[in-house]
Amino acid sequence: NKKAFIFDLDGVIVDTAKYHYLAWQKIANELGIEFTPERNEELKGVSRVRSLDIILELGKITASQSDKDKWLAQKNEDYLSYLVDMDESEILPGVMHILKFLKEQNQPIALGSASKNARPILEKTKTISYFDAIIDGNDVTHAKPDPEVFVQAAKALGISNEDSIVFEDSVAGVQAANIAKMTSVGIGQASVLHEAQFIFPDFTHIDTSFIESLIKK
Ligand code: G16
Ligand code: MG
To answer: What is the rounded distance in angstroms from the CA atom of residue 157 to the CA atom of residue 110?
Structure first.
């Protein structure tokens, strides 16, 4: 029995959301826009381009494409500076235990992330070898909640959507999995991720018997 186990990156495997936040906050400050951690929730799982648009809408700012391109480049440069020293210590609790168990069970594993920086992050955290397929922001044209990223991931593993399981920390990502008729597992707060079929606060709350039940399903 093979299922596709598809992992989101930011907020599921590593807590890079804090770095995205710091980098966006810097841009917002320069533009005189108030940007809080609460507002940042809306940027989770959302593409870089869409994230900037959300911030500009917040500040009621209309900008030229060349200004937008400049801020997008600046944001990414700043974000990358936080990743320079990244290593395995930034993998979220419980994640390695589940990745190792899935490998032992010979289950196919994929990454389904909106980020264009996914590969260097997987390399730095030494998790890249666990993934049989990597689909990220460089491969897709439609951002979550469009299911494209997860559909491509399942296809790359040769598994049907119905036999795919998605681990996601964002509302947009959970919706994408549901639209694709995949099993959605929300990682985070139940109040935020209530659309998910299963919800856990983090991977330390996921045990191998739950994974076994998904494999048998
Ligand atoms: C992530 C984050 C988003 C970020 C997006 C694009 O995706 O959750 O906050 O805006 O990637 O990232 P980048 O600027 O690195 O291309 P995911 O899908 O891994 O949660
Ligand atoms: Mg995420």
So the answer is: 7
Residue nearest to atom 11 of ligand 1 (CA): 115
Residue 58 is labelled as binding a ligand: no
Contacts of 130 (CB under 8 A, 6+ apart): 99, 102, 103, 109
Q: What is the CB < 6 Å shell around ligand 1? A: 8-11, 20, 43-48, 51, 76, 113-117, 137, 170
pLDDT digits (tens, 9 = 90+) for 26-61: 999 999 999 998 888 889 989 999 999 999 999 999
Q: What is the pTM of this model?
A: 0.94
Burial of 188 (0-12, 13-18, 19+ CB in 10 A): buried
* Residue 174 CA to ligand 2 centre (angstroms): 10
3-class DSSP state of 186: strand
ipTM for this model: 0.92
